[in-house]
Amino acid sequence: MLRGQGNDGVPDSRAIKLLQDDSQSSNQSPISNLFGGQYKSTLRCVSGGNQSAKFEAFSHLSVPMPARASQCSLHECIQLFVEGGTISGWTCPECQSSDGATKRLDIWRLPPVLIIHIQRFFNDGAWKKNQSSVLCPLKNLDMSPHLATKDAHQQHHRYHLYGVVNHFGSMDSGHYTAFCRAPNTDRWHKYDDHQVHELGGGSVRSSAGYLMFYSAIDQRL
Ligand SMILES: [Zn+2]
Question: Using an 8 Å Cβ cutoff, are 88 and 98 in contact?
Fold first, then answer.
């Protein structure tokens, strides 16, 4: 249970301040300072409606893809992440109903370097890979529509893409390559084992994009 949490399961501003202080002291490291963010996970009982919330740290956002779409935007994937979905079979500690719960993940604080993992692999009875294209902004990814808070603690919300890890192949076999943007020239390069080629910016987005690396504009990485 969250300290300072109200009866409705929603934390008050004092609890939020404590959490933010905690995140900047006890778990501080160069890694968490660069990659660490925070979201609020809220479970809501389908039957009784009561809800509970807790804050969780993340080092990357693992976002789902829309089903049955040949292409989608990164914003759609992030929105699906926030909406969370349902948890079947969950038993409510308040009303003992096992009708399940809805889960929502509100993004509370974003890090200087935001890593987004596209959930291309899924199981619908058998493991499969979704090969749809994800249209991700190369410049000016604005995360503010997805943020639950607009307060002064929210330092980072606008990002440039500087790296992509691609996965080619299937569940059984595959190959990884990387695209990286040189900070001094702003040009993209493809890294494929021992081969390195310059790449047009238009080729950065593909159906193979698996991990996206964004740096906050004010971070200047
Ligand atoms: Zn309940």
Answer: no
